[in-house]
Backbone:
């Protein structure tokens, strides 16, 4: 009997990853609802903002359907992250209404007054958060296509949540919210109430202490900005994190000129080692065929790993465990790869990253590539450095004596046909059977294909029908020559591929290889990275531009909303603290600043400024309507908004924590984003509660001085105009 098994099935990893993201989404919703209940300790008050979650998610699914988006890892990750944000607006609205009810106002009055007070705040928070993702929508290239669906999905969820918070939440509060009960509460309620009161009092005391040392805070802000900038420059940078997809791929390579039988024997020795590994469920092995980069001395092997719950090692750990075992087989090398979840361009080479050399002068190209390969092998940051250059294959050159051949009536074409019929595997006919058809290949018997001496036994048919020995009209010369000649863009090319040592970031390896090539290669040889390394180079520049554009767009949006050039800077003053927290967290967990982590940093721009918006809106209102001093207004705003700030931050933190911890398949790719957001939220929450009031005070003084200066200028110009 014959059993057919599907060895390569990407849908298994995709389904597993999507299922784990769904679980993360449900867990996130539960954690966010728990945070709301712990702060409010009221069932009806908990249900009202929690309803913003399903409404926003269902509305986002409807928009995704209209935009022809699919439910995939990117869109589901965007929804999971949005869970912590979509509830923020509803929390701010609800908390303000509850605060008015705690002051003795009726339900309807509290709903109307509370919603009017924070309506502009919610609009500012929603629009400024969406503004962060506007530059992502216009990104081009690989990164633009990868993040476009992410940005659109999370932006739609945030806009829907803002609309729900401004309309649906106040209506529910006016109908179903009950005033705080004066009856005796349970121990849990009283314990939490006592804890929150002590925390509020501690913040009150510490805030006044900080405001009395405002210059020290300015020095701290300056140091944070400098250190964060330094960390951004020095942080190891990657492209896409390695994920465990449950599949391994391997190239095998033996000596050039090895016979097919010997190659098969070597390949079987490697296959026996792979078959004994308890982490591998099934594998496939081929020799000498399968793609543009194949040749007679190469082979391939594809391995399907057991499910994650049936093995203890990850894909990368299995590779490190197999390497020393496979190295014991003499005469052949095996290059293992953990197949990436997202493969970007480039040929499938023996190692993951490719560096290509091009030149019209093949001799110079081959000499220089060999020299560069040796120097790359010496770099401690690289491993598995290989080349597709194969110029040491044993060859026999047949030199035709045209005069003798012509005298005997043999043409050059007849000689070429004789050689091709003998060694070229030419199809000469097809045999048709009732149920199948068979190609007939003409070639010499196997014993005549092993030694060059067999050429002397070859005869060529002349024009008169006689058979002429090949060695009477041609001579043979043994030598070495290229097994394959590769081209890129119509120029001869050599591709050097390499892997990174554990702990080495792609951002560190790329400049090292570029520097080495400049020092080694002549100016006539053009170089370029291919595949993932090339995408990393272009995306690194794009990501920095994306960060600057996000800051610029959010500054413009805040400037329009507040009709001020100064206060948007106050709102953005907490960003260095968030960036510092994100980068330090990534370093502590030994993660690179890759694409997903960079998206987390960009998201922090939109999240962190929410705290400042809540404080600054109240302070500006207190200054305009109550005539408070800037210091008194911002101090009171910080204290009154302390509870909603803590609630929204904890909701965002709980919404991102499952992603930072990572569950199931594909968690390795999501984890850097979650760690960046969690680390940035924790540090920014601790610092912006103190930084924002101090910056607000100095920015308000700066604004007053600027207005005074402009007014004096106008007064001074009036007499001259009269003259």
Residues:
């Amino acid at each position: 009997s014959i059993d057919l098994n599907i060895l390569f099935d990407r849908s298994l990893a995709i389904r597993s990853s999507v299922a784990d993201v769904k679980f993360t989404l449900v867990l996130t919703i539960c954690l966010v609802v728990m945070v709301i209940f712990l702060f409010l300790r009221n069932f009806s008050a908990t249900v009202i903002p929690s309803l913003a979650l399903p409404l926003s998610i269902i509305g986002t699914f409807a928009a995704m359907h209209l935009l022809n988006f699919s439910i995939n890892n990117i869109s589901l990750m965007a929804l999971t992250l949005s869970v912590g944000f979509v509830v923020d607006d509803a929390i701010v609205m609800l908390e303000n209404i509850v605060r008015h009810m705690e002051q003795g106002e009726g339900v309807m009055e509290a709903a109307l007054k509370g919603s009017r007070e924070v309506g502009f705040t919610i609009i500012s928070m929603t629009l400024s958060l969406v503004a962060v993702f506007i530059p992502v929508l216009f990104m081009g290239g690989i990164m633009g296509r990868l993040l476009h669906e992410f940005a659109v999905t999370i932006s739609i969820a945030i806009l829907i949540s803002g609309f729900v918070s401004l309309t649906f939440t106040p209506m529910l509060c006016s109908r179903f919210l009950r005033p705080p009960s004066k009856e005796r509460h349970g121990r849990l309620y009283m314990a939490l109430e006592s804890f929150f009161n002590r925390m509020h009092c501690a913040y009150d005391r510490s805030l006044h202490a900080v405001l009395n040392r405002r210059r020290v805070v300015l020095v701290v802000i300056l140091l944070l900005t400098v250190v964060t900038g330094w960390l951004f420059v020095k942080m190891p940078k990657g492209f896409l994190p390695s994920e465990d997809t449950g599949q391994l791929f391997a190239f095998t390579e033996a000596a050039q000129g090895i016979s097919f039988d010997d190659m098969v024997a070597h390949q079987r020795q490697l296959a026996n080692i792979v078959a004994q590994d308890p982490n591998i469920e099934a594998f496939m092995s081929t020799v000498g065929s399968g793609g543009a980069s194949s040749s007679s001395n190469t082979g391939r092997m594809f391995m399907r790993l057991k499910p994650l719950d049936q093995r203890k090692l990850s894909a990368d750990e299995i590779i490190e465990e197999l390497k020393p075992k496979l190295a014991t087989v003499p005469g052949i090398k095996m290059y293992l790869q953990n197949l990436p979840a997202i493969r970007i361009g480039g040929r499938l080479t023996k190692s993951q990253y490719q560096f290509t050399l091009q030149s019209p002068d093949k001799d110079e190209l081959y000499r220089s590539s060999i020299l560069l390969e040796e120097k790359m092998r010496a770099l401690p940051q690289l491993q598995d450095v290989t080349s597709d250059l194969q110029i040491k294959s044993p060859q026999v050159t047949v030199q035709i004596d045209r005069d003798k051949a012509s005298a005997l009536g043999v043409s050059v074409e007849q000689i070429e046909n004789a050689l091709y019929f003998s060694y070229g595997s030419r199809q000469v006919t097809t045999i048709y059977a009732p149920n199948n058809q068979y190609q007939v290949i003409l070639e010499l018997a196997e014993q005549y294909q092993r030694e060059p001496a067999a050429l002397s036994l070859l005869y060529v048919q002349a024009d008169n029908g006689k058979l002429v020995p090949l060695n009477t009209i041609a001579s043979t010369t043994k030598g070495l020559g290229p097994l394959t000649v590769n081209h890129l863009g119509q120029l001869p090319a050599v591709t050097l591929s390499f892997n990174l040592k554990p702990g080495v970031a792609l951002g560190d390896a790329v400049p090292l290889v570029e520097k080495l090539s400049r020092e080694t290669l002549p100016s006539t040889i053009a170089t370029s990275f291919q595949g993932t390394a090339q995408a990393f180079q272009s995306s690194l520049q794009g990501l920095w531009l994306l960060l600057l554009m996000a800051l610029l767009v959010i500054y413009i949006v805040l400037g329009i909303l507040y009709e001020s050039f100064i206060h948007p800077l106050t709102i953005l003053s907490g960003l260095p603290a968030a960036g510092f927290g994100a980068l330090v967290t990534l370093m502590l967990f030994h993660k690179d600043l890759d694409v997903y982590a960079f998206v987390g940093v960009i998201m922090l721009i939109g999240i962190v400024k929410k705290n400042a918006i809540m404080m600054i809106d109240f302070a500006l209102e207190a200054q305009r309507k109550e005539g408070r001093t800037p210091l008194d207004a911002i101090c009171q705003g910080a204290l009154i908004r302390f509870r909603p700030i803590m609630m929204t931050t904890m909701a965002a933190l709980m919404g991102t924590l499952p992603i930072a911890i990572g569950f199931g398949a594909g968690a390795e790719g999501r984890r850097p984003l979650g760690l960046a957001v969690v680390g940035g939220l924790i540090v920014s929450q601790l610092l912006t509660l103190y930084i924002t009031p101090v910056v607000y005070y100095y920015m308000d003084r700066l604004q007053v001085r600027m207005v005074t200066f402009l007014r004096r200028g106008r007064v001074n110009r009036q007499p001259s105009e009269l003259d």
